[in-house]
Amino acid sequence: MIAARWGRFSRSYRRRLALVEMALAWSLIxxxxxxxxxxxxxxxxxxxxxxxxxxxxxESLDALxxxxxxxxxxxxxxxxxxxxxxxxxxxxxAEPRAVGYEWLRDLLQQAGKKAEPNNVSAVVKADxxxxxQKQPELPxxxxxxxLLTQAHERLSADWKQxxxxxxxxxxxxxxxxxxxxxxxxxxxxxxxEVSVKDRFLENLGNxxxxxxSKLFGLGERSPWIGWLFWGVLLTGVCLTLxxxxxxxxxxxxxxxxxxxxxxxxxxxxxxxxxxxQDARSMASQELxxxxxxxxxWASISRLESKRLWPADRTRTPREYLSMxxxxxxxxxxxxxxxxxxxxxxYGGRPASAAxxxxxxxxxxxxxxx
Length: 369
Known about the structure:
Blueprint (H helix, E strand, L loop, with lengths): L1 H29 L17 E2 L1 H21 L14 E3 L8 E3 L2 H10 L8 H7 L3 H4 L10 H19 L3 H18 L5 H4 L3 H26 L1 H30 L19 H13 L3 H18 L11 H7 L7 H16 L6 H13 L4
Parallel strand pairs: 1-2
Antiparallel strand pairs: 2-3
Helix pairs in contact: 1-10, 2-6, 3-6, 9-10, 11-12, 12-14, 12-15, 14-15
């Protein structure tokens, strides 16, 4: 029986420890360092532009990329010069399309830090043995100059696409409308419909991305905030772990009592039925104070016989209360019975038949029937 109870205690402890470790792991993931460019303007305030303003913005961005590629300084490559994300209205019938520039802010942020070293691979290869120098080189990642050139090409392609004629735009709008009519048919309803749960999860993911991006950016600007957050997080995790271990210990300590013969002077050494017989005998003589006294010890004998605590006659009524866990459903009844017993037996207060009947009902809730 001891092994079975210890197994239940171990499984309960492992489950709670796993929950604490999972919370710590998620917190560590949230504190991983990311690029400072994550401090972009919020996507909630994206202005709507027409095609003319959109093309002008693309021209200014192309000039910004050219200046950054030429100067390669923090001032010329400032990602704040890109401006906020925007929504572009390509036609009056279609909805505005969201256009983001996060990719360009990241590129400018990297380009404004420092110049790349030249001939690094040649210097490293010269230090290698002759046999290693003959091996083919791995493909190199694109340099910042190449990335800036690609950004220029991308902006030029977007500028050309924004200059399409109204007839081409209306043709695309008609195609979208035809596709929408097809997808609105009955056979596609189960495929295209988005549930409330999916929309909620998507909005929650967007909110978490925005929150963590602002949090990472704040830590990048003020490193001490990151250390403070670390301290608060670790302190909270430690306190939670200690609290969980204390609760596990308090819940399980009363269930790990070894089976042994009770003390000859303990309440459980005498059957609880005999205690109740004495209580009814005193009640028949209208000795209510003594009757409540026997009802109380009948309840203690009943609980002690279930091995809720080691048998010990020297305990006080308040010590018996402390032996029960705080979430034990029997604790409320035992508190009420203990107060009635203390008022009449130790306090010298006269008892009545009604108080005796109440004590009997409370004892019945504790298993004394």
